[in-house]
Queue: 4 jobs
Job 1
Amino acid sequence: RVSCRHRRGRWTDWRRASSGAESRLRDRPRAMAASPGPSGVGGAGAVYGSGPLGFALDSGLEIKTRSVEQTLLPLVSQITTLINHKDNTKKSDKTLQAIQRVGQAVNLAVGRFVKVGEAIANENWDLKEEINIACIEAKQAGETIAALTDITNLNHLESDGQITIFTDKTGVIKAARLLLSSVTKVLLLADRVVIKQIITSRNKVLATMERLEKVNSFQEFVQIFSQFGNEMVEFAHLSGDRQNDLKDEKKKAKMAAARAVLEKCTMMLLTASKTCLRHPNCESAHKNKEGVFDRMKVALDKVIEIVTDCKPNGETDISSVSIFTGIKEFKMNIEALRENLYFQSKENLSVTLEVILERTEDFTDSAYTSHEHRERILELSTQARMELQQLISVWIQAQSKKTKSIAEELELSILKISHSLNELKKELHSTATQLAADLLKYHADHVVLKALKLTGVEGNLEALAEYACKLSEQKEQLVETCRLLRHISGTEPMEITCIHAEETFQVTGQQIISAAETLTLHPSSKIAKENLDVFCEAWESQISDMSTLLREISDVFEGRRGEKYGYLSLPKPMKNNANLKSLKPDKPDSEEQAKIAKLGLKLGLLTSDADCEIEKWEDQENEIVQYGRNMSTMAYSLYLFTRGEGPLKTSQDLIHQLEVFAAEGLKLTSSVQAFSKQLKDDDKLMLLLEINKLIPLCHQLQTVTKTSLQNKVFLKVDKCITKTRSMMALLVQLLSLCYKLLKKLQMENNRWVSVTNKDSMDGKI
């Protein structure tokens, strides 16, 4: 059997096979550059549908992970280049060579795909046949594309009647679709290997947990727990990689919640099990331990459910829609009336609104909602009902009378009910966030937890009952607050985080009480005290997480977060950043967006080149390597920003990252200058010439980031990314040159040592 580590290496090799081919094509002529083509025969859309990687959906192949998508993108880019060439373009030698180079590169990349695919197939017999069939299809399609682009002597070939890309565009499109489809199949099959690794790792963890549950001696427990710890670390790595790889933000949030449970419960499992072994006849200790094991098993099952995308026993997600989500959908429905008066029935709209208003009862029925908030929510709910009736009345008239006045009245009715619902949203948000803030402030000093710890050490059962009751009340308050926050969270991932917080308070509150009971019954037990401390820390940690969640919900509500593309809207000005104060929203047009995306792609390819150069160095702790790696990592974040992904969310984040990038570039030049002092004059001069190209670029980038361009955000982003790309191109050259000169220096030093030793020996003779 091949180890998980080895199989993950294969998977990495697979992804590198594609990125390398695209990197070598970065210098193809501008006339051949990839650009989105129209759908239908002759355009890029004919290859992969209406959008990037749409072909996979056409073939019934759903791409769920970023790694598969990123592996395919270079291949899609190359094939798009071939498909989008103009038939009437002057067939110069340069153009023909470029076409042939792209075709050959595609074929070479496919060859590497196939080799890695076959290696994966040989390691996984259950998938071997499927992978091999897809590999054969990919190989054939790659060879067909190479043959159709073999056009160096076009005039001679056309006279011989040979079929080429110029004479058989449909053939190229057909081969391209087959190639992309078959490569996608292999990637998805290889992805199943990764899923299998996660399932295998989960099964190992479960098996060891069963042994831990049954263990009776402390010595045996220590040995098994050591094994369990190693297995949990492996599972954490595998599931963490998968979480980061998922495209679906909702699934990522669910995975994060399940992994958070496993992380916190691992320490709880240790202390709860030790307490049971120390006090085997204590019922509360056993109850405490069973609660931890049960919760970990549920979390492990949840991870597998997300990874395999299937629920046990065909269950469905029965969680109700939040109020904010319901309002959003309702508003979309009424706004659709502007385009189509027969879009839906009046009854459906009435039922939808009633469902939303019924859910506001979670707020109005809550004992913790103030009288003022309750009255205002009821008032706005009544107003929304009345305005819907008015809208329906105008709607019926508009269906029979197509007059301008009726159309204007309909528009006014739509705006009125939208305004009422927005006011209701504000009131619900104010109610929930104010309640949560007050509750967090009230319980910030954790008085009840401290009292429970003291009660346990004193062995005071009466006081235990009193403070256990107080903690239960606090738990109910927090659970209900989380339920209200979910309604106003604004995004699905944060809804899931609210549900996770609610479940955590519910479970942990009861576990603290059972742990405190165990300590009260055994007040001198150090392990029982340690166990209670661990559960109390988990509670305090969740309180802290809830505070962070509250800030994030307010950020989304106030529009400070949640944009898909950070560069499409400007950030709020920072207190200490005067040059951003005058910036206002500046949404780039499609041409500008395309330009940014193209610059980003080139930057992404340069980071791959830099990483390849860095991997050559034997000494990975070398300062030049470290600064180069830091710059490459930051440049990759900038590339992700141009795609609307990664850690940089706004233009403000981008500018800060660029400032750090420029500073790192200057540190690199200092390290290279120090290295140049070890070289001979000719080599030193050559290296200093390259450094002198990079230093001014660093200073120019620093200047651009500090320059205010009023409302021209796109222009600023464009300039910054262009400078960054130039710096990365120089970084690649510098890393390559430094590596060669270092090897040369080492060889000369070794030769000198060898000659010195020989002279020494001759002298002795």
Job 2
Amino acid sequence: MADTLEFNEIYQEVKGSMNDGRLRLSRQGVIFKNSKTGKVDNIQASELAEGVWRRVALGHGLKLLTKNGHVYKYDGFRESEFDKLSDFFKAHYRLELAEKDLCVKGWNWGTVRFGGQLLSFDIGEQPVFEIPLSNVSQCTTGKNEVTLEFHQNDDAEVSLMEVRFYVPPTQEDGVDPVEAFAQNVLSKADVIQATGDAICIFRELQCLTPRGRYDIRIYPTFLHLHGKTFDYKIPYTTVLRLFLLPHKDQRQMFFVISLDPPIKQGQTRYHFLILLFSKDEDISLTLNMNEEEVEKRFEGRLTKNMSGSLYEMVSRVMKALVNRKITVPGNFQGHSGAQCITCSYKASSGLLYPLERGFIYVHKPPVHIRFDEISFVNFARGTTTTRSFDFEIETKQGTQYTFSSIEREEYGKLFDFVNAKKLNIKNRGLKEGMKQSYDEYADSDEDQHDAYLERMKEEGKIREENANDSSDGSGEETDESFNPGEEDDDVAEEFDSNASASSSSGDGDSDRDEKKPAKKAKIVKDRKPRKKQLESKKGKDPNAPKRPMSAYMLWLNASREKIKSEHPGITITDLSKKAGELWKAMSKEKKEEWDRKAEDARRDYEKAMKEYSVGSKSESSKTERSKKKKKKQEKQMKGKVEKKGAASKSLSSTKSPAKNLSESFKSKEFVSSDESSSGESKKEDSEEEGAASPPPSSEDSASGSD
């Protein structure tokens, strides 16, 4: 027999809604962790009084009753898991897991039984429905009627607001059945009534959400916020977490209370209550209880008379009454020495606090993200400037949070923190590259305004030079400066320190001629990779293996015709929606079958890609060899042609050596223009002849001198 049993995707019924989570059964007890809020319900094994197994809407469910009257309901079990659970309860909890089915006759006449915090409406021995009395917000009575009103649940699509019971009169004297029914309900109902005096009152506290100044009255079971316009009553059972966070200016403190369910103001829901305190504000507090009551209830955590900073007193009282730990920032320290990072979320500026087990952002809107619900984080460049970056968080439910406009100096500290917490980083390989890129901008960003000023000064000088040129020269010269063919050259001249004022000088023209080829070469160099990219895009091999389909696409291809036949005339969009719903509702066993098929297809694809890559490499090597062979042949042909040309020129030079010698001694100044129709070709021929013909002997030179 295993010591523990674990179940995923189990739903806990809380106030009419089903909360997804994980259930774990061990020797010590039962633990359920809510996936949405992270709240943990721990039921000790010694507290369990009864276990009931029954069929419910989501398969089969487990109902646990404790000795102090609490009821816990968990749904989402399979029928085959009953034997395993029954044996576990017998072995470790010494309880029989009883099977009880709900009555489905549809009758509305029966018996009401009160057991602990549960109202059960039974027909015979079978229950029809059960109402946890903690869900009741109000109970009113009539002549023969009792009306129960319930807390509204924001998570449920449809909420039950009211139930009325008809209570027939009895013949017994002195006992009113309606009043007896109402008293049984009110004794266990979650009805907030401000009866008696408050333990203590904090006057005119600054509240950021909901915004305003509120008096906070502390009662034994709930918190009362009293403002000029609105009043809120917050039961301590709805408080999830408490946070005490220092402001970046080191002069203020945030006290954050996380609530589930949230408080309501019209259609607005506030999941967080955020109070802002000044560190310099002190208070002397006296509790409205005698010292014995304080010692008995709070066991030394509070005293009757206390004094200190206002934020310390509020947090101390809340911690004692709610009985929850206060979360403070951990070891993280930003670039400026603060324990938070300035950033923006949804166009509002705020502070992001990296905690030991999550992130919290204050204050508008407040966001708390636990590490265990984070799928991955991502560091992205800022969209508007290089001085900042964005920090993105995506949860396992697919929700994405983007905290933007974070100063680049915070990158190293934040990355090291995320890495130390072992969170998945989407662009982990870019750590060094991003650090270098941010360091590259360090010098230029520090004097960014100076660089802008220098650029303005240079543009002013250019305008002055253009104005001087236009006043000295003619209008035609100014028009020529706007010639598209010469525009680049003129700009280059203006930035050239050696350029003369006049644009018609010979040096300036020669400079232009020298600069033109360099610019053309630069343009060609920039365009080469673009052509390669276009060629690579166009040249997609049709013989390459096709990528494998996912498990969902394989299932969709196989089930498309079936869906069409079941829903004739269905459109493509409706078909895809219907297919998504069917896939989501499919059991894990069936999904695993399609996952195996997708895995087989992926292996086949990888095998085909290996064979394809080997074949493509051999073909490319063949084409390269043929290209090299062609180039070699072309070179050989060019060499033969050059040799023939050199041999013919040497023959002509031996026939008229004297003429060649006399021409070789002539300088450029004495060469007449009518000796040849193209002087350029003659110069080239003479140079080639000088290079090809052997140097003259001493006898030839002597005869030439005579």
Job 3
Amino acid sequence: MAAAPHPTPHLQQHLEQSPEQRRATDIIRLLMLYRPLLDAFVIDFFTEGLWAQLPSAWQPALASATPSQLATLLGGRGSPGAAWPLSLLAFAAAARALAFPRGCPGGSPHPPCQSSHLHPLLRRHIKPKKQHEIQRLGKVGVPPNPLRPPNSPQPLNSPPSPQLLQRLSQATSCERVVDIGAGQGHLSRFLAFGLGLSVTAVDSDGRLVGLAERFDQELLRELGKTRGLGHKRPPRHSLTPRAPKHVAGRLDPAAPWGEFLLPPDPPGHGPAARNPLGGPGGSEDGGRVLVTGLHACGDLSPAMLCHFARSPAVAAVALVGCCYMKLSTAPQPPGCPLGYPLSTSVAALPGHQLSYRAREAACHALEEFEGRLRGDSPHLRAHCYRAVLESLICSADPSKRHLGLQPGRKAHALSFPQYAHLGLPLAGLDPAGVPLDSEAVGAMLKQQHKVVAFCTLGQLLAPAVETLILLDRLLYLREQGFHCALVPLFNPQFSPRNLVLVAARTPLATVLSGLDKDSEDGNSSEDKVSSEDEDLGEAES
């Protein structure tokens, strides 16, 4: 009998990789195959002839597909009947399979007007989307998997269940939380007043710090009034009169972990307060801290991970990133990685580079776009309008290419001439000198279905790009020897950046398993404000 063939060196290397490394490798291969599609700006659809750059076998099927049929390519519900080429089906299936599961949206595509899971005083000044996010981040973790053997590695993705930051606090014996990029302090306020944790909120904008402090004092006054009223029916949510401490300062990714902060931005809005991580050995009070960031923008997310890796004062981190297009991509000095890539695993892979356009696409709202396709929403025409406008601008003055124009949030409700009369002056052009009713303009507007189809292909790749960025962060932490996991935390229909990266210096089993299911905190279970809550005040939008 002939001996079994030995695996090739390339296959052997692939087999020796961890599941996360293999996924990153496969994503990069997919992106390299479709790099022109990934890096294309939809506004260049006409100026660069993007339709002709698609595989010729795809063009007839995409050109004849209805928006509802295009929705099926994204994995959603839609109208059957489209005869997709096998190569297009394979592309769509690969893109969907390589992206992290984003959870089951369920329920309404919009958050409720108010969340009954938050005390009414904590809902003030907070939009419904943010209410959903801070309540989930403060109180959501991962339930056990009955099919997973004891002490086995935690799966990369797990469905949500109650109490993440609370469980992290208990598992690490930390009662102090540092909220980086806290803004107006909404999450910090919930953690302090709602969960009773000791919270330090850090933000680079001294004006936002002042506003957050004002909101805290407002809540304390209202809380005092409520207690003095002696309600016959006390609210379901009790608060502790424990306000967070607010710090004005910027995170310095290059500083030693004991320094941590730079003066705030802009100058003159208060000096940077004492480092909330304290000196060697721990925080200001000698203990360790949890660090969290809700939608930490651009390089702030990797900077937080670097400080976690270098600071023994940080016991754990729970991070939700955003604004991937703002990530640094230039080579970083040894020992202080920043931006993308962070991990040596991803940095060593040929073709790992991501363009600005690719990172921008990773910030898109896939579920929202899919819903617009299913409903053949008039919002879809805005993509064609902008591409036609770009063609007119480039014809009039090529130096004005790719301007960040915002002709209005209700562009879909306008005729194209109305849209152009708003957009051309933003580019410094007189609409009177541009032929808006020419045959060429009419011919471009008739290709709206093609523009929408091209957008759909880009949306297919966007979750894979986000997955690669998050995998890079997870692998960076694994390379440092930390325990980490990614959890789909928010409802992706109204909170697109819904994956939270959780990492700790000790095993996460007690945090990510053994939790009882709480149906009241599910992704689709936000309900209306109860009558006793209404007595205590409403949230502002």
Job 4
Amino acid sequence: SQITTLINHKDKPKRSDKTLQAIQRVGQAVNLAVGRFVTVGEAIANENHELKEEMSVACIEARRAGETIAQLTDVASLDHPESDSHITIFTDKTGVVKAARLLLSSVTKVLVLADRIVIKQIITSRNKVLATMEQLEKVSSFQEFVQIFSQFGNEMVEFAHLTGDRQNDLKDEKKKARMAASRAVLEKCTMMLLTASKTCLRHPDCESARINKDGVFHRMRLALEQVIEIVTDSRANGENEMAPISIYSGIREFKNKVEGLRENLYFLSKENLSTMLEVILEHTEDFTDSAYTSHEHREHILELSKQAKMELEQLVSVWMQAQNQKTKDLMEDLEVAILKTCQCMNELKREVHSAATSLAADLLKYHTDHMVLKALKITGVEGNLEAVAEYTCKLSEQKEQLVEMCRLLRHVSGTEPLEITCIHAEDTFQVTGPQIISAAETLALHPSSKIAKENLEVFCEAWESQLSDMSMLLREINDVFEGRRGEKRVYLSLPRPGKHNANLKALKPVKLDTEEQAKIAKLGLELHLLTSDVDSETEKWEDQENEIVQHGQGMSSMAYSMYLFTRGEGLLKTTQDLFHQAEIFAAEGTKLASALHAFSDQVHDDDKPLLLLEAEKLVSMCKQLQITAKASVQGKSATFTKVDACILKTRNMMTVLCQLLPLCCKLLRKNKAGNGCLKPAPPWREDRIRTGTNAPTPERRTETFGIKSLENHVTNMTFLESK
């Protein structure tokens, strides 16, 4: 941002002392920042000899570029005649541009090299875990097992911290969800590995105990492999992971194509549209063929599938006519056909959602008592092999029901991260079911074995935990369907003691009681409605990567998590969590205001004053919310007043956001239509865009890995410190 300020400054014949001093301060600030950054890079280079040469070269380039910028901005003595020969930003602006490009590319190189080091750390940690696992598989005595498992536990802790930090740094929500699923498997399997191995050591000749243990080791190896695939962005044997398309995503894409006919009648073929519908209807067979779908839902889905084919036939007929002659009547008929087709697809979407979620709700309610698991534990301790066999059949039936439930929920999950969570849940039920059966058989064969009993308990707890997770997943899927965004954990950044807030230990975390929740319910509901409005506005933008859209979506996600707090739900558990979230929300609002100002520089439309007015209003509101969120309060009444003020100010900012998004969208569309409401971008923007492809700006990059991790190196803080 400092470099942008320098390059974008306007040359004026008269330069005040204030302007000259400001330019010099910016140049010096850039040079100092580069110096600190490079010091960290050089420290990393000394610790990692295989990349030392590359890192050192990048650091030297960055330092040289920073010094050049400082020299070119040394303009304070320009008024003195003896300094006329001195080259400055005013006499050689291209020199600053060159230095800026060199600085951005070298800084990016340092960050990429540091990133490679982190990846190497994760791979090295995984290799240590695998090597120790191999030793654990081969041990034959308890004493040896205890020693090696102690080492294994420490290595797993280190791996958990490394991958946890990496998960937080991931920007791709899909990868983040896959990483979370793999780490959850490793966490649960560590305890399973302990009890399964001990059982196998106690009963070395027991086949079911061996099968139980082998299953745990196999699952852990798969999870470790998936973590490395995500971290290195690769798949074994060069495979590409192609997850089957869900009904929701198919319908969304189909509707986008159909609605696109309003703008362009020739951008796709009728065969293309027909194929898309066929794929969607093939997936509905997962519902109509399922033994667990009710007769009523099955009939409705078949009826709507038939209707969708008829609506598409009518649409194609009118569409083909409109291509030949574009009369007013035909265009009106086309609009009606588009609306009817989209309405039919919405009804189909609603029907499959109802079928999946009602089945899930019924199954989860039915299995909450865990009767089969309790019976397996009792009959296992009794050594009743016949009864254990009977209940293992019942557990297998339960497993098939839950697996089918997960498959159907995946179709209606609404977002890729939730789809991945459904796939993970399906895998968990598929694997844990047989493991419970082998653990129960072992106990039945050795009914007096305490370790066999403990082992069965651990696997049963994993099953119960997954059922509990399914209830939360079902609620999230319903939230998405009803237009509420799921919480984006990336924005929460909750403080950790001693790391983000020096005064955190002195603060006592407080939850809202029922009476306080009731008082704030109306305000929370208003906030909830505004998040839905903002979400619907951002969905109208063609360019979902637009900076304004991304900041708007981020604010909406955070506001939704604050709404959930007013209901006593979500990840914000205490008032301190809420205040921290409010600070981050205000910071995101400030970033949005900066993006709006940059956008307004390109606008010469009548609406520009209104855009600037709303942007300024947003800046003022951000400052007020920051002050409120940081204010120190004592006592229950004062804390509730602060909560109320934070929610109120957040609501007001969301109201302004609801006005800004359609205004910006309108200005962009005017420009696209050729009305020329945007000025051509100045040359410096083109330079940034050209270099941006291969060299992202430091500000953007630091969000993923960047300075935070580099600072961790220079202050000798390890990733283990994070807990």
